[in-house]
Amino acid sequence: MELPPLHLDAQAICQALLRIDTTNPPGNERPAAEFVARHLADVGYKPELLEAAPDRTNVVVRYRGTGAAPPILLTAHLDVVEADASKWKHPPFSGIEAEGCLWGRGAIDMKNMAAMCTAIMRKLARDKPVLGRDVIFAAVADEEAGCDLGSRFLVEQHTDLVRAEYAIGESGGFSLHLAGTTYYPIQVAEKGFCWVRARVVGEPGHGSMPRRDSAVVRLGEAIARLGAARLPLHPTKYVKDFLEAIAARQPALVRPLLRMIARPELLARITRLVPDAAVARSFGALLSNTASPTVVRAGNKTNVIPGLGEFQIDGRTLPGQTDDDFVRELRAVLGDDVELEIIKSAPPTVTEPVASPLFDIIQRQVLAREPDAVVVPYMIPGFTDAKYFSQMGARWYGFSPVKIEKGSGIKFADMFHGHNERVPVAGLHWGTQVLDAVVREIAAT
Ligand SMILES: [Zn+2]
User: Fold this and answer.
1) From the CB of residue 368, how many other CB atoms can be counted at a distance below 10 Å?
2) What is the CATH number of domain 6-188+349-444?
3) What is the CATH architecture assignment of 190-346?
4) How far is the CA of 36 from the centre of ligand 1 (A)?
5) I need a labelling partner for 120 at 20 to 30 A (CA). Which of 94, 274, 303, 307 fits?
6) How much distance in Å is there from the Cα of 110 to the middle of ligand 1?
7) Domain residue limits, the chain
8) Ligand 1 center to residue 383 CA distance, Å?
9) What separation in Å is there between the alpha carbon of 22 and the centre of ligand 1?
10) Tens of pLDDT along 161-200?
């Protein structure tokens, strides 16, 4: 069949995917997965639809190489987080094109990537190049709720379908403009998570006789202590390398400041100088384990002092840190009379070594189009499908490229789970071309 040019194919697919509501929960990725599968079947593939639960559909497809080298995996999640339509300029599932952008929940996170990969696979089927590696594409469910029904299910139940030497997915490859220089961060590490239940027991009693030591009062105190605490700093090589690479191209005044951030004794002082609270927060998150109190529970009757209170902690752990290390840090803040129990955890994910033929190719292909840009490895404080795909040995690079023009008013970080999520059409075209070139080059070898 006749295909539109690659970049227009990606645009049309992206727009259509944005119009399919895959808000997770409940997810309901099936229509989006079927849409992707149909577009792949149209050009001769036999995509597989795989489900760990009804309508929580994953799609996997493979372009066959000669087998001279192990496969490369492209991946994107199909689910999105919820959107409060009342806060959006255009409805979040409209996929409308306006002001040079495609608007919709998932435009950046990450139906753009799903669309680019689908278009790239379609072009492979049309061009039929001889490649040394198989190219696998997995469009997955359930990333936004922890990956159990998506990447984790594929890695654990269908390993042979997705096993690869390299994987390209979330998150990175977007333009970051800082003081006159454009950077393209590539994700090579992400923090682990360690979710903890904290329990406080106290003497129960009647609400008419307040107790200073009630579980509720002590629960409040524990949460306040945790909220005010700053956990110890552990600068990792990922963050140092990132800051060093950023610093190298910054004005002479800023350079030493950036280099000092990785030094624990100076961080506190420097972050106080950072005017943007969000930026200061992200420095903290990149340099220490973090603990956010989230769910709080105690009592169910106004006139009864309950004997038990509990809260949950969303903990995030740095590379090099274990769950035990993290719990020890919590204990130092909360004391011994708060019981701590790990509910769920996964270790940090790191790509070793950071430099590789694929990293070099990504760098070269970006610079070929933007010679003044700087490609930098980086670590994200959250987690992605990298957590599971790298468990089967794949070296993960977060590279879902999109070019964002300086002065466009679009801040990449604000697009993730934010209102008015949108992808610049020209940036999507650019990303499709770069990603296609990267895939062709690494798969040819
Ligand atoms: Zn995402």
Assistant:
1) 10
2) 3.40.630.10
3) 2-Layer Sandwich (3.30)
4) 18
5) 94
6) 5
7) 6-188+349-444, 190-346
8) 9
9) 13
10) 999 999 999 999 999 988 889 999 999 999 999 999 999 9
